[in-house]
TrEMBL record:
InterPro entries: DUF5931, HATPase_C_sf, HATPase_dom, Sensor_HK_TwoCompSys, Sig_transdc_His_kin_sub3_dim/P. PANTHER family: NITRATE/NITRITE SENSOR PROTEIN NARX-RELATED, OXYGEN SENSOR HISTIDINE KINASE NREB. Residues 235-272, 385-418 are annotated as: Disordered. SUPFAM superfamilies: ATPase domain of HSP90 chaperone/DNA topoisomerase II/histidine kinase. This is DUF5931 domain-containing protein. Keywords: Kinase, Membrane, Transferase, Transmembrane, Transmembrane helix, Two-component regulatory system. Residues 403-418 have a biased composition (Basic and acidic residues). Residues 181-221 form the Signal transduction histidine kinase subgroup 3 dimerisation and phosphoacceptor domain. It holds the Pfam family HisKA_3. The chain crosses the membrane at residues 12-30, 36-54, 66-85, 105-129, 141-159. Residues 1-170 form the DUF5931 domain. The keyword Transferase applies.
Length: 418
């Protein structure tokens, strides 16, 4: 709903209430009018106009310029008609005009529709009509007209500020959505294409000959693609890259989140998914997987993202710890969170290396691991010392992991309703 919509709803109610007030004044002063029939005719016209245009002030789209001009014309006509139906003494005493405070609704319509400039213009017209009706610049008239002018200008200015804030918020939300989508695509690219290119480069250099030239070209493409990912100029990939078998026993470019949860308690439709089923395929000759005896349930989307982060951590073990390194995966189900620890016996990570890698465009840690955990409301911590291996602790709070699944379910229900 637009930020100004409550103002239109309030204006609709204001017109009805002020009409009832003006009718009450007309009935009360009926015997004091010089020409009461004229007052009754005008009030009938005002009532009919308010009833027929009730929906015109319900939104900015329905409230057109033509209607606003007509509405202001009805109000001004009532002000100028007052000296013809009422006596001069009552007018000199400052008795209300025929439309009374209903006139303010016409002015506020201009202010809400067009801002403070439209409100000031409409207020000036009403002020001129009131001066003509009184025939003099009486003090009470000036006070009332200043109140109308200040109120309309203030409300018009507030509406303009609200519209500008709404546009700024919408722009910020679009930027945030685009940034999240770019990070997601960058993670997918890192987990697939970049891993394959890096593998081709290493294997080509090891084989030599024409394969070495192919590896060199793959390395150049990897650098170019990493540059695109780091600068955000990434075209959404529509296909998964093929992955070659890895003799180390770790998954290659495949994203564990692409694998559907098995039937039963593990579901891929947003229902709880057993994280053990997604992490078990990582176990191999050089990867030891330790799990609880009971299912570790998370929403399918959160479980897939956490499993993908574990896969990215194991990819780093394969690339940086060497072929002879051993890795351990420990899955823990805490009361409020799920924790996965990936540890290896490699050479460790030198201090500052992760920051340097991110600056160079190597976003495996920044996007494939930290980015995924951040989106889930979790954390990723590295504990490493030179020569003592590396330990990565991935923690996902259960409460925050449920929110993406709930939002997805609500979105599906909304689409089904449409």
């Amino acid at each position: 709903m637009s930020v100004e919509q409550p103002l239109w709803q309030a204006l609709t109610a204001y017109r009805v209430l002020t009409l009832l007030y003006a009718l009450g004044l007309c009935v009360y002063a009926y015997d004091d009018y010089d020409h009461p029939f004229g007052a009754v005719v005008y009030m009938a016209v005002l009532t009919l106009w308010t009833a027929l245009t009730f929906r015109m002030v319900s939104s900015a789209e329905r409230c057109t310029r033509r209607f606003l001009v007509g509405d202001l014309g009805i109000a001004v006509a009532g002000i100028l008609l007052t000296p013809l139906v009422d006596n001069h003494d009552r007018i000199a005493e400052g008795t209300p005009t025929l439309p009374s405070i209903w006139t303010m609704g016409a002015v506020l319509g201009f202010a809400i529709k067009g801002g403070w400039r439209w409100g000031a213009w409409a207020s000036a017209v009403v002020c001129a009509a009131n001066v003509i009706e009184r025939g003099t610049f009486a003090q009470d008239t000036i006070h009332m007209l200043m109140l109308v002018w200040v109120a309309s200008v203030a409300i018009g200015y507030v509406v303009e500020v609200a519209r500008a804030s709404e546009r700024t918020l919408a722009r910020a939300l679009r930027i945030e959505a685009a940034t999240r989508e770019r990070e997601r695509l960058a993670r997918d690219i890192h987990d697939s294409v970049l891993q394959v290119l890096a593998m081709v480069q290493r294997r080509g250099a090891a084989i030599g000959g024409e394969a070495a030239e192919l590896g060199r070209m793959a390395g150049e493409q990897e650098i170019a693609l990493r540059t695109l990912v780091s600068t955000g100029l990434v075209t959404p990939p529509r296909g998964a890259a093929d992955t070659a078998p890895d003799p180390y026993g770790l998954p290659g470019a495949a994203d564990p989140s692409d694998s559907p949860c098995p039937p039963g308690p593990e579901r891929s439709d947003g229902a709880p998914c057993d994280l053990r089923a997604l992490l078990a395929p990582h176990a191999g000759s050089r990867v030891t997987f330790s799990e609880p005896g009971a299912p570790v349930l998370l929403p399918a989307g959160a479980a897939g993202e956490l499993a993908a982060a574990v896969g990215a951590a194991l990819d780093n073990v394969r690339v940086h710890a060497g072929e002879g390194a051993h890795a351990w995966i420990l899955l823990e189900d805490e009361p409020d969170a799920v924790m996965v620890t990936v540890r290896d016996d490699g050479p460790g990570i030198p201090e500052g290396r992760l920051a340097d890698a991110e600056a160079e465009g190597r976003l495996g840690v920044a996007l494939s691991i930290r980015g995924r955990l951040r989106d889930l409301g979790g954390t990723a911590e590295w504990i490493s010392a030179p020569g003592q291996g590396t330990e990565v602790e991935l923690t996902v709070p259960k409460a925050s992991a449920k929110r993406p699944a709930e939002k997805a379910e609500q979105k599906e229900k909304g689409e089904a309703a449409r």
